[in-house]
From TrEMBL:
Name the record gives this protein: Tryptophan--tRNA ligase
Keywords: Aminoacyl-tRNA synthetase, ATP-binding, Cytoplasm, Ligase, Nucleotide-binding, Protein biosynthesis
Superkingdom, taxonomy of origin: Bacteria
Catalytic reaction(s) noted: tRNA(Trp) + L-tryptophan + ATP = L-tryptophyl-tRNA(Trp) + AMP + diphosphate + H(+)
Binding site for ATP: Q8, P9, T10, G16, N17, G150, K151, D152, L189, K196, M197, S198, K199, S200
Subcellular location: Cytoplasm
Quaternary structure note: Homodimer.
GO cellular component, one term: cytosol
Length: 336
């Protein structure tokens, strides 16, 4: 399989990003049957943070590369690159936008959801409406056969498949490949307030957070609203913290013991949060050690992105040659 996936540099990577995408990227990369292309989608980030690109987005990009490398993404096994370093993304986006009905984009299930979620940002722009077209260009450019998605993201991929199908039909070609969804199980990891973990909600724990910050954030969680006193029986299945055990604790007996003690009022929420914070800190200890090693290597981030862009462009150029030939746009070659 040739696999492609990307992530927007709209903030620092948080635990939701790690367990929802990055950990799976590493697993897919380490399968010798796969070719993996992973990119930082900075063009997509422009839809909601135009003014901040020169300052904060650049910081997010650099930190994201460090976090991905520390998480196990290997530039020797995966092509890791910055979207804007490959101009063919923009070229194919323009071509595909001419074939993409506005009605298809307006029915995108997350269009209105994002408008509601990201308040205070200017999303009333053509780029935000047309981001599924750019997403299609991202995928098609590398002839990706599979895209890792959760069940809720399948409709997004179907829009890409429809756009690619329309291109191939219009120009009577098979130049672009229709990608298939690669469903992955994503562990449930809510934010500190119980909602989906998100930078926009200010409820995230970030990969860069040091142990003291992790402890402070975990201790701030409201865990069991039905348990005002420690002497009251707990409700682990309604507690915001308890699902974290399934992610950070591999000892099923310990998890069941926490459940039993909570329900028997033997384990208080404060003690529970303290032990969870230590579980999290232990879980990411190796990550933080690798992160410091990477930061100590001067220019490593830029070297990785430069090499990734070189590899990505080699593939992207070949795809654009096929696209131009299918459309009859390879005029300079015919004139030469």
């Amino acid at each position: 399989m040739r696999i492609l996936s990307g992530i927007q540099p709209t903030g620092y990577l948080h635990y939701g990003n790690y367990f929802g995408a990055v950990r799976n990227w590493v697993r897919l990369q380490n399968d010798p049957a796969n070719e993996t292309f992973y990119f930082i989608a900075d063009l997509h980030a422009l839809t909601s943070n135009q003014a901040g690109y020169k300052s904060e987005v650049q910081v997010y990009i650099e930190n994201m590369v460090v976090d991905l490398l520390a998480s196990g993404i290997d530039p020797d096994n995966s092509v890791l690159f910055l979207q804007s370093d490959v101009p063919e993304h923009s070229e194919l986006f323009v071509i595909l936008s001419m074939l993409s009905p506005v009605s298809w984009l307006e029915r995108n299930p997350t269009y209105k959801e994002k408008m509601e979620e990201i308040k205070g940002k200017d999303l009333d722009n053509l780029g935000f409406l047309g981001y599924p077209v750019l997403q299609t260009a991202d995928i098609a450019l590398y002839e990706a056969t599979h895209v890792p998605v959760g069940k809720d993201q399948i409709p997004h991929l179907e829009i890409s498949r429809e756009i690619i199908r329309r291109f191939n039909t219009t120009y009577e070609t098979e130049a672009l490949i229709e990608p298939q969804p690669l469903l992955s199980e994503v562990p449930k990891l809510n934010g500190l307030d119980g909602r989906k973990m998100s930078k926009s909600y200010n409820n995230a724990i970030y990969l860069i957070d040091d142990p003291d910050t992790v402890r402070k954030k975990i201790m701030s969680m409201v865990t069991d609203v039905k348990r005002p006193k420690k002497s009251d029986p707990g409700h682990p299945d309604e507690c915001l913290l308890f699902p974290y055990y399934a992610v950070f604790c591999q000892d099923q007996e310990r998890i069941e013991d926490v459940r039993r003690r909570c329900m028997a009022a033997e384990l208080g929420c404060v003690e529970d949060k303290k032990q969870m914070a230590e579980l999290i800190i232990d879980y990411f200890a190796d990550f933080h050690r690798k992160r410091q090693e990477i930061l100590a290597k001067k220019n490593m981030v830029f070297d990785v992105l430069a090499e990734g862009a070189k590899k990505a462009r080699a593939v992207a150029r070949q795809t654009m040659e096929k696209v131009r030939q299918a459309m009859g746009m390879d005029t300079l070659r015919r004139y030469s």
